[in-house]
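Is this the right way to post structure tokens for a design question? Let me know if I should format differently. Anyway, here goes:
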């Protein structure tokens, strides 16, 4: 698609994109990083990768013998 446009059209598109981006509110990376860290720490209690899934609510739990029992039976 971009190959079908003239250089003037491409530059117009770039200017329009820059006009949109300049309106974005910006904050320092140090502040954004701190806010992200606080959010992640606040949500850690709800994260199944950190706290795990209760065995009775795990839809992927295999029925029958555990993998450890299967491994030792060989």
């Amino acid at each position: 698609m971009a190959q079908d446009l003239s250089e003037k059209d491409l530059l117009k598109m770039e200017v329009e994109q820059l006009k949109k981006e300049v309106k974005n509110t910006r904050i320092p990376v140090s502040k954004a990083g701190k806010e992200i860290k606080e959010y992640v720490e606040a949500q850690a209690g709800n994260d199944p990768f950190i706290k795990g899934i209760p065995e009775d609510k795990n839809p992927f739990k295999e029925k029958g013998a555990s993998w450890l029992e299967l491994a030792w039976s060989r």
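Format looks fine. Someone answered above. Worth noting: The chain has a mean pLDDT of 86. Residues 19-48 form one domain.
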